[in-house]
Amino acid sequence: MPKKDCVSWNAVLTACAVNGKVLEALCFFETMSLSCENTRPNLVSWTAVIGGFSQNGYDEEAIEMLFRMVREGVDPNAQTLASVLPAWSVLSACTNMASLRLGKEIHTQANTFVGGALVEMYCKCQELKAAQIAFNEVNERDTATWNALISGYARCNQIEDIQRLLRKMREDGFEPNVYSWNGIIAGHVENDLHDKAMQLFSEMQTSNMRPDIYTIGIILTACSRSATIERGKQVHAHAIRCGYDADVYVGAALVDMYAKCGSIQHALLAYNRILEPNLVSQNAMLTAYAMHGHGEDGIALFRRIITNGSRPDHVTFLSALTSCVHVGSVEMGRELFDLMQHYDVKPTIKHYTCMIDLLSRAGQLTEAYKLIKRVPVEVDSVMWGTLLGGCVLHGNVELGEVAAKRLIALETNNTASYVLLANLYAYAGKWSDLARTRRKIKDIGMHKIPGCSWIEDRDDVHVFLAYDKSHKRTEEICATLDKLTLHMKTTAL
Question: How far apart are the C-alpha atoms of 297 and 301, rounded to whole Å?
Fold first, then answer.
């Protein structure tokens, strides 16, 4: 058998990293570290592991690996730095300023190979001045470098500078391409400028620039966030004409859009059009079922996902647990919660909240409280509010008061906490406690948040608040509601 050397080790390690098997890659790397001198990790080994972590969402691990690399006396090259910058962008975008400062240290070592990645990193950190400096230092700019800067300005809501940058891009000898349009449109969507994003999408088509799959996904996000199903259908029609609707990522975006716009039927149709569903699209459909209260369908889909060999992630489990809440299946919920450990999925506070909701609705309030005390992170107001809601539902005053006390301590001026506590006292017939709670609400001047509803009429969304009569057609609306109310009463009689 031929003797293993660093080249053969690196070949296996790189293959694991490229195929997303980062833990296996790390195991090979650590084995190399303990081996003899001629198989110790070299620059290629370090870069492969760091790149594997970064590309598969292990951002903190990628950066920690880079620091370890430097500590052990191995100097990173341009490729190593380029592979870790996306991870830095993710962490810095989460307000990790320490990561940003360390990213700037990398900047001092970087060359033009990582220029575009540096521009993108600074833009994601909302550091436009630093991004502009990094851009100016790139000796040989290309379309990708320009796109990184323009996209960054759009994402930072510096919309007024976009036309100036596009003009300079052309003066530099580069024409905007589909990626330029995508970056600008994405910036508008991220800043909730959905109407303008739709307008840009129309302008893009008018300019004979063919939208790609990513463009369709961005615009569908705009439609889902603004809950405008008619616009979503128009984009869907465009996707069909371009042959994109069967694409797994466009299909997932369509499922998400239709679900958020209120049509589970259209969401299912879009899902069934996907040729080869992956976990992203499966999660989208699972979330749609959970959102619309189709618990049994959600659980059935989860079982198919497992049976087909897909590896569920935290989104899969959260949606499946929500489905269990809708059908009231405590046993299935417990099974899923325990199954997370089997798939190395660490429960987040959302998973714990879902389980507490499931137990509380089922009247297993003591079990829910015990689970809260086992939560490894700080318990938030949502979790205590969920338990309090269960106590109101089942009339558990003693535990309800505990939950209410914790909830009010976290959100002193939240009317909903006091209203729930008042409802609990009313349910239990504790009238003196009820009166005291209502006086408390009055004394601190809190008001109940008014109810809100909205309807879509073609491309317009009409919003209505309780007791609000500011709509220009209020009289017509009220008259129609009176007629409908009278009709319902007559029919009921």
Answer: 6
- Pairwise CA distance, residues 138 & 115, whole Å: 6
Assign 194 a pLDDT band (cuts: 50, 70, 90).
very high
176: tokens are: 């905007």
Distance CA 408, CA 47 (A): 50
Question: What is the DSSP annotation of 246-262?
Answer: TSHHHHHHHHHHHHHTT
Per-residue pLDDT tens over the stretch 57-82 = 787 788 788 778 877 877 777 667 66
CB 53 within 8 A of CB 61: yes
Q: Yes or no: say if 216 and 234 are a contact pair by the CB < 8 Å rule.
A: no
> What would the two tokens of residue 236 be?
């869907």
CA distance linking residue 379 with residue 465, whole number of Å:
32
Kindly report the CA angle at 286 between 284 and 287, in degrees rounded to 5? Answer: 65
Residue 15, judged by CB atoms within 10 A of its CB (0-12, 13-18, 19+), counts as middle
- Rounded to whole angstroms, the Cα distance separating 373 from 375 reads 6
The 3-state DSSP class for residue 119 equals helix
State the amino acid at position 376 in one-letter form: P
Question: Is 299:329 a contact under the CB 8 Å cutoff?
Answer: yes
Here the contacts of 412-418 (C-beta below 8 Å, separation 24 or greater) are 413/444, 413/446, 414/381, 415/441, 415/446, 415/447, 415/448, 415/449, 416/385, 416/449, 417/381, 417/385, 417/388, 418/446
**How far apart are alpha carbons 484 and 478 in whole angstroms?**
10
- Residue 274 CA to residue 279 CA, distance in Å, equals 12
Burial class (CB in 10 A: 0-12, 13-18, 19+), 299: buried
| Residue 398 to residue 406: CA distance in whole angstroms | 13
How many C-beta atoms lie closer than 10 Å to residue 63's C-beta? 22
How many whole angstroms separate alpha carbon 235 and alpha carbon 229? 10
What is d(CA 14, CA 116) in angstroms, rounded to the nearest whole number? Answer: 24
Residue 196, pLDDT > 80, answer yes
Report which of 132, 207, 218, 221 is spatially closest to residue 183, judged by C-alpha positions. 218
Coil, helix or strand at residue 462: strand
Distance CA 358, CA 301 (A): 19
Does residue 36 register a pLDDT over 90?
no
Tell me, rounded to whole angstroms, the distance of Cα 331 from its chain centroid: 28
Query: If 0-12 CB within 10 Å is exposed, 13-18 middle and 19+ buried, where does residue 217 land?
Result: buried
| pLDDT of 422 above 60 | yes
